[in-house]
Amino acid sequence: MQKLRVELGERSYSIVMDSNILSGLGRALERFEFSRKVALVSNPTVYGLFGKEITESLKGSGFDLLEVIIPDGEKYKSLSSAEMIYGELLKAKLDRRSCLIALGGGVIGDLTGYAASTYMRGIDFIQVPTTLLAQVDSSVGGKTGVNHSLGKNMIGTFWQPRLVWIDISTLKTLPPREFCSGLAEVIKYGVIWDREFFNMLEASREKILALDEVTLIEVIRRSCEIKAEVVSQDERESGLRAILNYGHTVGHAVETLTGYTRYLHGEAVAIGMHAAARLSNVLGLMDEKQVLRIKALIEACGLPTEVPANIRDEDVLSAMQLDKKTVSGTLRFVLPEKIGSVRIQADIRAEEIIKAIRD
Amino acid sequence: MQKLRVELGERSYSIVMDSNILSGLGRALERFEFSRKVALVSNPTVYGLFGKEITESLKGSGFDLLEVIIPDGEKYKSLSSAEMIYGELLKAKLDRRSCLIALGGGVIGDLTGYAASTYMRGIDFIQVPTTLLAQVDSSVGGKTGVNHSLGKNMIGTFWQPRLVWIDISTLKTLPPREFCSGLAEVIKYGVIWDREFFNMLEASREKILALDEVTLIEVIRRSCEIKAEVVSQDERESGLRAILNYGHTVGHAVETLTGYTRYLHGEAVAIGMHAAARLSNVLGLMDEKQVLRIKALIEACGLPTEVPANIRDEDVLSAMQLDKKTVSGTLRFVLPEKIGSVRIQADIRAEEIIKAIRD
After folding, report:
1. Cβ neighbours of residue B336 under 8 Å, at least 6 residues apart?
2. B164 contacts B102 by C-beta, under 8 angstroms
């Protein structure tokens, strides 16, 4: 069993990872001072696969369990779903010492964390991420949120979980395309922070795609470790944490312009990472050889690298302006200087961005 | 100009108070690093009285001002109103460095603070409280929230304002009943924390009711000072802060059982403070003379002291069980030991509570 610590003072917490550990969650929660009443939030697909194991574990440890099932899909990451959760918690009389357990991918994790952060001015929650993307990214770091009709993740909080419980066995039932989408964020960590990790990913890509357990645990552990390190230094994204948005500026624009239907999040980020790498090269910050290595690893993981030809340049530019990270109209790019190191740069001319995207 | 500091590390902020200072708000905000785009949230009544002065001040300092007007009334302290605010902020492109300004009483302050705490994972906000209750209580301390159909303030966050700007001149237009309701919280501070302040309130009650400026500023300053001291020691109500709930246990029950229509919040708290003082006496914690002094001051401020006869004892008991402060079914009372000092006590028998209420 691997264990990491996210250091955030009184909000510090552990990330535990191994295979086949869902049935151990009840025992792990006994050491916290929660009320007996806790709630599991999940969706029908994930609950169908892992619900029985988790609920038996929690009940076996004496918890009085409420189950809240939210329909599948990003469109349920909404204020209405949060309101539905509040209602269920109030009817079942969950109190300030109750805890919510998020069993699922990013939608369930973000929504449950948001509900936890706003129920009775904030109660505890536990992340049990069941997708690779959630395991290496969204379950760690305390960003919660729901979508608004005028923008994704526009409503949210910073609210750290008390524990992240990662069972890599859940990845066996994950559709391959979803798995690959998660790999985009893994590659991101190599590019922004750790050249050796990037090398390891290049060398191990076949084992990763074959879901080799030892390799997977190593990949997830190192990804979480990097994210934890960045988040520990800048919990609320006032500085360093912004480097985690590498690939997300163009990525979000591509997602918006394709109506969130054509690409999974990681696929759009993959396109954005390649675009940002090329932009670095256009600006003379990084040599072409490293751009090609990044591109090759993205492609080897079954991910796209190019902004679709039918999207207009000016639409990409204006979609980027609407990004939540834009402050007073100034757009900031996360640009690699070499594999393992990035910088943040503002005031890049539109022609250079277009050149990077369309070269 | 009186100025107090609420010490909360990086979340510290000032409370500024004086008469006729609404027109100085713009200048005061210039020293913060806000975006030019800010939003004023108010209701039609308060906006009608003070909107022009505030908006001119903000525009005069170069702010690009969005105005969001929420209809009057507690029923608009809701998730729907928060959603409406989010929509207006997004349409006007307020960003992470924008700030919200709450101009109004507790409903506007709590709602605006809640919206600020959840918009783009939290933006800054300023409290400009215009009722006595908001000036001495709800605008200080960072409790934000909206109501749920199953309970008041059930959805909320702890989110500190960046500045509290108290213009006591706004009290001149406040209906006398609302003013008296605010005095309940003022009396509370004397009972829980400061015997001399209680003595001063007894001696100055006529000046207070006549809105004498010098006296009012002194009363509001000391109230805010006590609240700030308590909140600084326990921001999230894990211990000491609970003493601020003196009078609120029975008070909330009375509000619930009368459908929030018969009593203003402070009136219900006044009834609850008297009940808790009597409960102290029933339990042998405080002599009757001090109970009678508390009762006399409450009455002198035009506030009620008795639970209505048509409310059944068992309904009071069960309504208290639903209180948000109840954890794992255990109810805690804040009980005075003498004027100026309270203790928190659990496991009080129902008969004793009824005896205190009905004696």
Report:
1. B191, B192, B246, B276, B277, B280, B285, B286, B290, B294, B342
2. no
- Taking the Cβ of residue A148 and every Cβ of chain B, the question of whether any pair is shorter than 8 Å is answered with yes
Query: Strand B143-148 relative to strand B99-104: parallel, antiparallel, unpaired?
Result: unpaired
CA distances from B189 to B73, B107, B124, B198, B294 (A): 27, 22, 28, 8, 12
B196: left (phi over 0), alpha (psi -120 to 50) or beta: alpha
Task: Cite the beta strand spans of A108-250 per DSSP E.
Answer: 124-129, 143-148, 151-158, 163-167
What are the CA-CA distances from residue B58 to residues B22, B40, B122 (Å)? 10, 10, 22
CB of A330 within 8 Å of a chain B CB? The answer is no
Interface predicted TM-score of the whole assembly (ipTM), two decimals: 0.94
Q: Are A177 and A264 in contact (CB under 8 A)?
A: yes
**pLDDT at position A85:** 98
Beta strands in chain A (DSSP E): 2-6, 13-18, 37-42, 64-69, 99-104, 124-129, 143-148, 151-158, 163-167, 332-338, 341-346
Q: How far apart are alpha carbons B207 and B52 in whole angstroms?
A: 30
The DSSP element (H or E) to which B267 belongs, if any, is: helix B265-282
Q: Do residues A101 and A128 make contact, with C-beta atoms less than 8 angstroms apart?
A: yes
Closest chain A residue to B38, measured at CA: A328
Q: Provide the token pair at B190.
A: 């004397």
Cβ–Cβ gap B118/A86 under 8 Å: no
Interface A:B, Cβ pairs < 8 A:
92
Q: Are A148 and B86 inside 8 Å of each other by CB?
A: yes
Euclidean distance between the first and the last CA atom of chain A, given in angstroms as a whole number: 46
User: From CA A226, how far away is CA A37, in angstroms rounded?
Assistant: 34
Residue with the two structure tokens 């959760």: A85
Q: To the nearest whole number, what is the mean pLDDT of chain B?
A: 96
- Domain A2-173 fold is Rossmann fold (3.40.50)
B11 touches chain A (CB under 8 A): no
The list of chain A residues with pLDDT below 70 reads: 324-329, 359
Q: What letter represents residue B4's amino acid? A: L
User: Which residues of chain B are under the pLDDT cut of 50?
Assistant: none
- Structure-token pair, residue B181: 């309701």
Question: What confidence score (pLDDT) does residue B324 get?
Answer: 67
Q: What one-character DSSP code corresponds to residue B199?
A: H
Report the alpha-carbon distance of residue A287 to residue A37 in Å, rounded: 56
Among B141, B161, B325, which Cα is nearest to B235's? Answer: B141
Q: How many helices (H) and strands (E) does chain A have?
A: 13, 11
Q: What's the CATH number for A176-358? A: 1.20.1090.10
Can you tell me the distance from the alpha carbon of B51 to that of B45, in angstroms, rounded to the nearest whole number?
A: 9
Domain parsing of chain B, residue ranges: 2-173, 176-358
List the single residue in B with minimal CA-CA distance to A237: B121
Contact (CB<8Å) B97/A328: yes
